[in-house]
Amino acid sequence: MKFLLVFDFDHTIVDENSDTWIVKCAPEKKLPNGLRNSYRPGHWTEYMGRVFVYLGDNGVKEDDMERTMTTIPFTAGMVDLLGFIGENKELFDCIIVSDSNTVFIDWILKAADFHNVFDEVFTNPAAFSSTGYLTVQNFHAHRCPKCPKNLCKRKVLKEFLDKQCERGVSYTRIVYIGDGGNDLCPVMLLKKDDVAMPRQGYTLEKKIAQLAQDLSPVECSVLVWSSAADIMSYLKLLIKE
Known about the structure:
It is built from ten helices and eight strands. By secondary structure, it is of the alpha/beta class.
């Protein structure tokens, strides 16, 4: 009996968007209008690449970035929740599927000592170049028309489950915890015994509600959360079942 917990990162584990938080490193803590307005829907990773070039051009170093990123606040109750999962790893496999990047997530989890809670992190690969600039790449290529071009979370989840299946690992239940529009695609993969946990008041909750109104509801159960304490209460019930 093992459960799989799938977490989004921005506005789920941390209470901000890590990609916009880094702007605190910029001169006057803001980006020039031309750069801000250069974002094209579905092309966030390329946009962040331009942001990182701007920061590098303005002398922002790796240390400055790391110091800034590790001040990002965790969502209410999340520190306790991750501690609880860490103490019950024999029951929970735990992964992150995020549109952030490896460098940011690594810094934030290490600083809070939560690395051991997560079995795998699936996110856009990032690294510092020889000139000290942060670079980021698309996570993968995919054909899903609903998702941004750098990441289809459903594809990631399906490939992870297939790989686990080959290793003889299957899950009693999958619990998907997220907030954003790009979390809907993986939620559509979940079966009736699984649970989607959208954050209250955020896009994922609204999209799931819209599907129910359109009489094409998701197959899994839906439990809304506003604090990670709600998630912990549910996991405690799950363990008792």
